[in-house]
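Methods — Computational structure assignment.
A single polypeptide chain was analysed. Its primary sequence is given first, followed by the predicted tertiary structure written as structure tokens.
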Amino acid sequence: MDEFRDLLKFLDLPLVTLGAEQITVWMLLQIVVLGILLVYLSGKLRGWVAEQILARTSMEPGGRQAVAALIRYLVLTIGLVVILQTAGIDLTAFNVLAGAVGIGLGFGLQNIVNNFISGLIILFERPIKVGDRIVVGEVEGDVVRIGGRSTTVVTNDNITIIVPNAKFITENVINWSHNDRRVRFRIPVTAAYGSDVQLVQKLLLEAAAECPDVLTEPPPGVRLLAFGDNGLNFELRAWSTTLIHRGGLFASNLNLAIYRKFTEHGIEIPYPRRDLRLRDGSPVKNITGTNSDPEG
């Protein structure tokens, strides 16, 4: 019995005094245990709402994640108030603490608050969503998670980058799949002067038609953009929805097909050439990489 009394005395030991309220070991233990349970259950609730309830609707994955995240924040807020009341803590005792926290937020926690508010703006306005292909600054990849403070982006190299939410609000963001997952790629191609222009256009369109990742609607197109220093500068414009996250592979597939077509039909892909003329107008008879003077 003495050990039990000692345990009760220890649990009733006051740790912090807030106004007229004393925070005991027992209260703190209740808050910690119930808080961990609240965080765990709210995370489970978020996954259940997004993957079970909202998955049955026509809402897209990004929207489901946004709604589920907002529900979790609401549950965490209400749950925290209930936990404090259950532990016997009068919330009015936190007036002094709230003032101190407010000062701290004004100085040391500016970035955290900024990122959190930015996260809420992202969830409401949805400039980006889970599954989007985005470019922000030097980061390019797929959005896999939007959290309260940061957004998780996975690159093509399978590298996970944690981007603060504020960057998506304050910087220019390229969203490849914001409204429509169809993206037009531009493939530059140079053909030698003297090539059959109509044949070049035909071969480029055939190369695009044979690529399974190129959409037939909108159809691909070819433009003769300029008369370059080394040849005729064409541009193949093709649409895709399957390889918007792997633009390099898409361009490589088309370039391989174009090179094969050009080789089969004798279309030359030029390389840089320069004409050399002497200032006195005399012809250049012989240019070698060695000294032609036998006495030199």
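Note: Residues 128-175 form a domain with the SH3 type barrels. fold (CATH 2.30.30.60).
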